[in-house]
TrEMBL record:
Superkingdom of the source species: Bacteria
Organism of this sequence: Marilutibacter alkalisoli
Protein name, per record: arsenite-transporting ATPase
Catalytic activity: arsenite(in) + ATP + H2O = arsenite(out) + ADP + phosphate + H(+)
A Pfam family this chain is assigned to: ArsA_ATPase
Length: 342
């Protein structure tokens, strides 16, 4: 199931509850696809930075070659927010009068702690990677993006955010259009009688200069807002396209991960994201002593509950391993296990 998705899709999101092995599954899937000849970019959006630990080397915020056909990068939350605020702050300073630059800096400093800032900055970076990271075949870019995502709640909010951000940008464009229309009305009044002159506070060449300056600023604002709307709309379009994108939920066969998986599946479906399958990781063997056999029976009960709630999703089961798969060789062995059991 995983290898089929990695072969047929352009974007894969790997998510689930914390501690179930999402990063390992994402890395092994990306490696299997790269071994099959696809050019793959593996991206970690998890603040825990497990990608570097898993590969046993520094990964970081810039794409780095991990294996033939496979590059990896970690989106650093602080660095992402800093870059996001610097870009927005620079845009605001260009658009606002020079004497308000200090106010813009204060606003941006306060924005750092605003609820949702982390998600908004992360979404902007993901949208940018999806927009520019998937090049046409033969262009030297990547054929497949594999996102190793943060734990469930964070990721579910992220998947719903493009819709909200697009709506927010639309609202800004609407307000900007109304403001522009109001400005044009005032300027027309200014041409017709002295009332407009008084409202605008000047006449003659000063009017023309302000009008030209105002139009330039309006055009820049609209250009920035349209660019952001296009980027979010493109991400929304890619997320909603089941032919290009799939979300895979990783879990262990325990009560809380099963309940969280059912809840996450509902949130993703409501957000319009196609769920391509389930990976049940770390399944206990039933032939390695009574202790593990007892655990295997309990896990089977939890999986029955999962199959009752989500009967139509492909499901892959991976065995409990004696150690953590760390490094290229161990991940190659893990990738070889990505075969369907149902």
């Amino acid at each position: 199931m995983l290898t089929d998705l990695a072969r047929s899709r352009r974007v894969l999101f790997i998510g689930g509850k914390g501690g179930v092995g999402k990063t390992t599954v994402a890395a092994a899937t990306a490696l299997a696809a790269a071994n099959a000849g696809r050019r793959v970019l593996l991206v970690s959006t998890d603040p825990a930075h497990n990608l570097g630990h898993l590969w046993g080397r520094e990964v970081g915020a810039q794409a780095r070659r991990l294996a033939p056909n496979l590059d990896g990068l970690e989106l650093d939350p602080e660095q992402t927010i800093n870059a996001h605020l610097q870009e927005v702050g620079a845009a605001l300073r260009r658009l606002m009068p020079e004497h308000l630059a200090g106010e813009v800096d204060k606003h941006m400093a306060l924005s750092r702690e605003t609820p949702g800032m982390h998600e908004a900055a992360l979404l902007e970076r993901i949208a940018e990677l999806v927009e520019h990271g998937l090049d046409a075949p033969g262009s030297g870019g990547h054929d497949l993006l594999v996102f190793d995502t943060a734990p469930s709640g964070h990721t579910a909010r992220l998947m719903a955010l493009p819709e909200l951000m697009s709506a927010w940008v639309d609202g800004m464009l609407h307000r900007q259009a109304r403001s522009r229309h109001f400005g044009e009305v005032l300027r027309n009044l200014g041409r017709d009688d002295s009332v407009g002159e008084q409202i605008l506070g000047g006449h003659g060449e000063r009017h023309a200069a302000r009008e030209s300056e105002g139009e330039t600023r309006d055009d820049r604002i609209r250009s920035l807002l349209h660019r952001r709307r296009h980027r979010f709309e493109h991400l929304r379009e890619v997320l909603a396209d089941g032919e290009r994108t799939a979300f895979v939920i990783v879990l262990t066969a325990e009560r809380l991960p099963v309940l969280e998986t059912i809840e996450l599946h509902g949130q993703l479906v409501r957000a319009g994201v196609s769920v391509g399958g389930l990976v049940v990781n770390k399944r206990s063997p039933d032939d390695a002593g009574e202790f593990l056999a007892a655990r295997a029976r309990i896990e089977a009960g939890h999986l029955n509950e999962l199959r009752t709630a989500l009967p139509d999703l492909p499901l892959l089961q991976l065995p409990l391993l004696p150690g953590e798969p760390v490094g290229h060789e161990a991940l190659e062995a893990f990738a070889a296990r990505l075969m369907p059991c149902e």
